[in-house]
Design a protein that fits this description.
The complex is a heterodimer of chains A (268) and B (313). By secondary structure, chain A is an all-alpha fold. Chain A has 12 helices and no strands. In chain A, helix 2 packs antiparallel against helix 3 and helix 3 runs parallel beside helix 7. A 6-stranded mixed β-sheet of chain B has the order 6-7-8-3-9-10, with helices on both faces. In chain B, strands 2-1-4-5 form a 4-stranded antiparallel β-sheet, with helices on one face. In chain B, strands 12-13-11-14 form a 4-stranded antiparallel β-sheet, with helices on one face. The chains are: A mainly alpha (268), B alpha/beta (313).
């Protein structure tokens, strides 16, 4: 187990030097900054626009980072054969999977933190330049700490997506892994529709299948509390804890499956 | 101390081939082999013979269909065995964004070295493989030959007792080949066991105490190279300092002219160079190089199949 932190640090070191990552983070930060200008165009709505755009950018770019770098972790390592020399070291295969995952979570945490700081900086500037009277008209303060809950849930969602990407990349090539992961992200955001499928179709079999899929496929919609936070509606800590628990359970199952598959794989 | 550094017992590996109806194709067929501690074994065979498959089984990058592989008395893949071995994969590739030094430090840390020890080990090894000056370059800037040298350095990071080198000479220029040969010789002197694969006979001639020859997944011969009776087909002699008139006087026909008054002479097997060399000297010719032309491993194998009694095993 002592090798896991080493592998995680190596993943972090490797990904912070990746141009793709720089571009994504830079673009996200620019978008958050630009939301200030967009906010200027909409009188009275500006803070909401900035929060909405900022949190949206954090989520979308976080997803790109999770998928592209997450996939690269294992499948690129297999494809380019760098895994040969790594697995000849005293590293058990499950330690490799866990180390890679931990490293990516670390990378994501740092990136999310950068984007969150950028968002709070823009909002802080906004609050600083506006008059007290104008600030009173806002539903929630500009630098509302409740946004941290939304950011935390985005992070939990990204951890789950990373586990999905890692799972696929333990037995598929990078392109197929990326496609399937993106597919599950899309499905995951519309998952709730599957639950109510029986109201739409008559076929019992189809409704049953939809129900099974609802429980098996990842449900990502609960991680999205942007609207609540932007409109100053309360998000209970119980809700955050429950959603996080769901993420942790799902991640645990995915990592176990990934370790199981990876341990039996032939690296031809 | 186990009796054998490396031991293969009836090692067999099938790969499924075909997309719709995969069928097993035997890549390695019942290979049994023992390597004693301190031995340098050349694992020879033509391309596609199963050399890399054997090495991957020893590293447990793939799992055997049947049979066993042991390293230092422990089953292949055992973490304790891996602490004491080094492995250079064929055409090694590492992480583009890391420098050679960072790579070696990373691998050293995986063996439990402290950060300080790993750094000093990395510096020593990179100097040893001639990359001291390039150690802060990102690996993306490395040539194929330099990556091969990094590959050798990373295989030595844990000061291993047993080394597995898959085609250590491939992709190297003549200087690199010479350096690698020197390195393998030095490793042998340090008492390490070296198991290296190659499809080039001359590599084995220069280095090995013993060879094992693999053809189409089967071990066809093991023993000292001298005992294996490779047939010499002739010699290639390169000389300089004359015009081709004198060569005609000496009765040498198969001559190719290279630039700068150099000639390549293909000596047939019935004209051994021992007699010819003094004559060349008398005519003011200088020998640039003399290389025996052996039958290839494939030819050796074909002869082995057709006339098994001619070769030792």
């Amino acid at each position: 187990m002592a090798v896991i932190p080493q592998i995680a640090l190596q993943v972090f070191r490797e990904s912070v030097r990746d141009k793709v990552l720089y571009n994504l983070v830079l673009f996200a930060v620019m978008l958050i900054a630009a939301s200030y200008l967009i906010g200027q165009l909409t009188a009275g709505q500006d803070v909401k626009i900035i929060k909405d755009l900022g949190l949206g950018a954090t989520q979308v770019f976080g997803l790109f980072i999770a998928v592209f770098i997450g996939i690269g972790l294992v499948s690129k390592e297999v494809e380019r054969r760098s895994i040969y020399s790594l697995l000849a070291k005293p590293v058990r295969r499950y330690e490799l999977v866990l180390g890679k995952y931990a490293g990516l979570v670390l990378t994501l945490a740092v990136n999310i933190a950068v984007m969150a700081v950028a968002l709070y900086a823009v909002l802080g500037y906004m609050a600083w330049v506006e008059t007290e009277e104008f600030r009173q008209s806002w539903e929630a303060p500009a630098t509302d700490p409740a946004m941290l809950l939304a950011i935390f849930l985005i992070f939990a969602q990204l951890m789950l997506v990373t586990a999905i990407a890692l799972f696929f990349s333990t037995f598929l090539g990078p392109i197929l892994s990326a496609m399937l992961t993106f597919g599950l992200i899309v499905v995951g955001h519309f998952n709730a529709d599957l639950r109510n499928f029986e109201n739409v179709v008559d076929s019992r079999a189809a409704a049953y299948l939809a129900k099974v899929l609802y429980y098996v496929l990842p449900n990502l919609a609960p991680f999205d509390v942007k609207a609540e936070v932007v409109h100053a509606q309360p998000v209970s800590l119980g809700y955050v804890a429950l959603t996080t628990g769901y993420a942790v359970t799902y991640i645990g199952a995915l990592l176990l499956a990934a370790m199981f598959i990876f341990a039996r794989r032939d690296f031809k | 101390m186990p009796r054998y550094a490396i031991r293969l017992q009836e090692l067999t590996k099938d790969f499924p081939v075909g997309f719709w109806r995969p069928r097993p194709v035997r890549a390695l067929d019942g290979v049994s082999l023992e390597v004693e501690p301190g031995e340098v074994l050349g694992f020879l065979g033509p391309n596609g013979a199963g050399k890399t498959t054997t090495l991957k089984l020893l590293m447990q990058l793939i799992y055997p269909t049947s049979g066993r592989a042991e390293i230092l008395g422990r089953p292949a893949g055992d973490v304790e065995a891996r602490r004491r071995l080094g492995y250079l994969p064929e055409q090694p590739y590492f992480y583009d964004n890391l420098t050679a030094e960072e790579l070696l430090v990373y691998f050293g840390r995986l063996f439990g070295l402290s950060a300080h020890d790993a750094r000093s080990r990395a510096a020593t090894l990179l100097d040893r493989v001639g990359l001291g000056a390039a150690r802060r370059w990102q690996l993306r800037k490395y040539s194929k030959g330099m990556l091969q040298r990094v590959g050798i350095a990373q295989a030595l990071v844990n000061d291993p007792e047993v080394l597995f080198l898959d085609e250590p000479m491939s992709g190297l220029d003549p200087v690199g080949r010479r350096d690698t040969r020197e390195l393998i010789r030095a490793l042998k002197h340090e008492g390490r066991t070296v198991f290296f694969s190659s499809h080039i006979l001359s590599d084995a001639e220069a280095l090995c105490s013993r060879v094992a020859i693999l053809v189409k997944g089967r071990l066809v011969a093991t023993g000292r190279l001298a005992d294996l009776a490779f047939e010499i087909l002739g010699w290639e002699l390169i000389v300089t300092g004359t015009d081709d008139g004198i060569l005609t006087v000496l009765g040498l026909d198969a001559v190719t002219t290279v630039a700068d008054g150099r000639f390549v002479i293909n000596l047939p097997v019935d004209r051994p160079p021992d007699q010819l060399l003094p004559e060349l000297g008398r005519h003011g010719l200088r020998v640039v190089s003399l290389t025996p032309r052996h039958e290839s491993l494939e030819e050796f194998f074909m002869r082995l199949v057709e006339h098994p009694q001619e070769t030792a095993s």
